[in-house]
Amino acid sequence: MLMKYPFVRIASSFLLPALMLFAAPVSESTLPNETLRYSVNWPSGLSLGEATLSASSARDANGPDRMHFQFDLDAGVPGFAVSDRFRSAASGSFCSAEFQKTTSHGSKRVDDKETFDPNTGAVTRGSGAGEAELSTNACGKDALAFLYFVRQELSQGRVPPSQTVFFGAPYEIKLDLAGAESVKIGNASVAADHVKASVTGPSSSIDFDLFFLQDRARTLALVRVPLALGTFSMELVK
Predict the structure, then answer these.
(1) Rg of the Cα atoms in the chain
(2) Which of 18, 28, 108, 189 has a Cα at 20 to 30 A from 140?
(3) How confident is the model over 34-83, as pLDDT tens digits?
């Protein structure tokens, strides 16, 4: 059933890393606290589901300020529902501390957690007998922290170079700025920065397009994923 509707799998496995590592931290975040809502659409424009992207910051009891990012996706087709929850905690420089992923695809549920150690450059995935250790650097990034890092870089006129981002497994992400473009959001045309993304994982790869508003926060307005059935999208709901 899932392979019959590949965008359900793409949305949960690749949209976020889009939406998916430097040795030294970048400048502190100037992005606002926010909650953004999106419609996940078939090529015809009909809704397949909805998603929410949010960010907030809070001061730890015994430490510096920490940013918290969330991405929730609820989509599906008759007889097969997808409900995904992703949570990220990161420093003000977008260096990840913890990433949690809970996915429910039909009857299959997966819980995954990654903990980042800036002192050793290690990423611990899972716990107990299922624990595995991956290597990164002093400022490793999960997919959500990376998305907000990209927005900050774009707001300063820069595009991050190719790098590794963690979404359970490590993914190689390459971004290219394709220039300014007008896109339709709802009934209005808006100016946006068009970024082409290529994501390569352990066993698969995909290319897609992201469009960021030309506001101060470089709000993610639209994601387009071309597949055999047509181009699926995730569109900001104003």
Answers:
(1) 17
(2) 108
(3) 999 999 998 988 899 999 999 998 766 666 678 999 999 999 888 889 89
Residue 107 structure tokens = 């009857």
Residue 205 resides in a domain: no
* Distance from C-alpha of 195 to C-alpha of 58, rounded to nearest angstrom: 30
DSSP code, position 154: H
Number of structural domains the chain divides into: 1
- The domain of 113 spans 6-173
Backbone angles phi, psi at 148, to 5 degrees: -70, -30
Nearest to 75 by CA among 109, 41, 43: 41
Separation CA 121–CA 134 (nearest Å): 9
- Asked whether residue 192 is domain-assigned, the answer is no
Residue 138 counted as domain residue: yes
Give the list of residues 6+ apart from residue 235 with CB closer than 8 angstroms, or none: 38, 39, 41, 185, 221, 222
What would the DSSP string read from start to end of 101-129?
EEEEETTEEEEEEEEEETTTTEEEES-GG
